[in-house]
Amino acid sequence: xxxxxxxDDVEVGTELAAVNYPATRLSLVKYCGASGDFNVxxxxxxxxxxxxxxxxxxxxxxxxxxxxxxxxxxAGHRATVLEYGVRFSSLVVVPDDDAGAxxxxxxxxxxxxxxxxxxxxxxxRSGDAKxxxxxxxxxxxx
Amino acid sequence: xxxxPDLVGKTFPPSAxxxxxxxxxxxxxxxxxxxxxxxxxxxxxxxxxxxDVIAPPTFPIVIAMASSARALSEPGLNLNYxxxxxxxxxxxxxxxxxxxxxxxxxxxxxxxxxxxxxxxxTTTTQISTVDGEHVCAAxxxxxxxxxxx
Lengths: 142, 149
Fold this sequence. Notes:
The complex is a heterodimer of chains A (142) and B (149). The two termini of chain A are 15 Å apart. In chain A, strands 1-3-4-5-2 form a 5-stranded antiparallel sheet. Chain A is an alpha+beta fold. Chain A has helices at residues 25-35, 45-50, 60-75; strands spanning 15-23, 80-88, 101-113, 117-126, 129-140. Chain A has 3 helices and 5 strands, in the order βαααββββ. The longest helix of chain A has 16 residues, at 60-75. By secondary structure, chain B is of the alpha+beta class. Chain B has a single domain, classed as Hotdog Thioesterase (Thiol Ester Dehydrase, Chain A, Roll). Chain B starts with 17 loop residues before the first strand and ends in a 5-residue tail after the last strand. Classes of the chains: A alpha+beta (142), B alpha+beta (149).
């Protein structure tokens, strides 16, 4: 995190190594409180199953936040995020155990743009499923 | 269709002013497990070139959701939230949101349609300071599973 990436040092096609982020029931409860999104499918297994879900699922925005961390940890403190978008392609199912689910995020430097901007293509998986698609961030680097 | 398509194009009045606080930003950063000091340490944020602690990139959803919850309680938008999952989300930032900002959110319903058995509703929320400085646009697509059945 202390390392600062600079625009001139970035090469298109560079692969950014995967980082694993945990998502436990506690993470979801904390995210409910901090975000104000108390949708029952994120904390109530009984109701989640009654509406046809396999179990409690993570907030899409929790998953998006993990991929966001991946971007900002790579880009460094002096970078600014200009655009960030994802499609939620699969559910992150969070079992009621100590490990919870794991969200694995990796990325590729997709494009270098004018104005010191760099576009990253991101991938996020949980188990066998790709949980984000069309995930892309544009950052401005020093 | 469960959702009234006549609401496409409707722009709602701006939300009440929301003051971004350092405590809330730190709480949100903790909840997403992000230890980056620029979200909780003013000196670190200033060293990185910001006037005060900034918000993680997904934080504006907190402000956008508060405004959309109000709009989506509109008659004709009978969303069953237990059946709602997030389809897509995209942010465009004019600058990072930061502590001390006082902002309002203005929501427009840009699309409502059925895809298979599901109903999709797409909204854009513009977040600006009360002084009129644009901070961020949040584009959201919510999916009501079985909403079109």
